[in-house]
Amino acid sequence: MRIRRRTTGRLLAATPCALMLLGGCSQDMSDLDSYIAEVKARPAQPIPPIPAVKTYSPYVYQGLTGRDPFRPSTSEGIDEQIASGGGAGPRPDLDRPKEYLERFELDTLSMVGTFEQGEDYWGLIRDPDGVIHRVEVNQYLGKNHGRVTRIETAEVILSELITDGAGGWLEREASMALEGT
Predict the structure, then answer these.
(1) Rounded distance, CA 22 to CA 26, Å?
(2) For 35-145, where are the E strands, in sequence order?
């Protein structure tokens, strides 16, 4: 019986508190009704118009009078003699056997260090498979006929041959910096 008295006593004490809390909620909502009426009375903002639809004008290919879309364009500012494929410009030796590192794009290779023994100096290059290769001056790497011209402590300098898009070749210098510098 003791247990019931405690529960009953607590219930009797909580009932007046609950009634006082509910008593605070009144049915007078006139301030809310007036605010809603004010918002509804405001003038509506104009909606911006939908933008006009642009008409599509198809491109008509002119056939042989225009540039061949399947042939790369020539770069601007190239000497016409080199761009036309003539002249004594640089040419890759296409008959030489390809070296192992020529199968990778230059940006997939990374320089990880240098190695020196006596007067010999090598660059250490990591391929995409994680294998480290030793390269020296005049070795080739990269897909653009890149020939190593100089090896420094923090950099391997290459001379690449790239096509100019018109049958000729251009020589450009590229480099691989030591990883982390």
Answers:
(1) 8
(2) 110-117, 120-126, 132-135, 140-141
Domains of the chain: residue spans and CATH: 106-181 (2.30.30.830)
Q: Is this structure's pTM higher than 0.85? A: no
- Specify the amino acid at residue 110: S
- Token pair 């809603």 in the structure block, residue: 36
Helix (H, G, I), strand (E, B) or coil at 148: strand
**Residue 115 CA: distances (Å) to CA of 36, 94, 112:** 82, 30, 10
3-class DSSP state for residue 132? Answer: strand
Confidence bin at 150 (pLDDT 50/70/90): very high
- Percent of the chain, pLDDT > 90? 33
Strand partners, 126: 110, 132
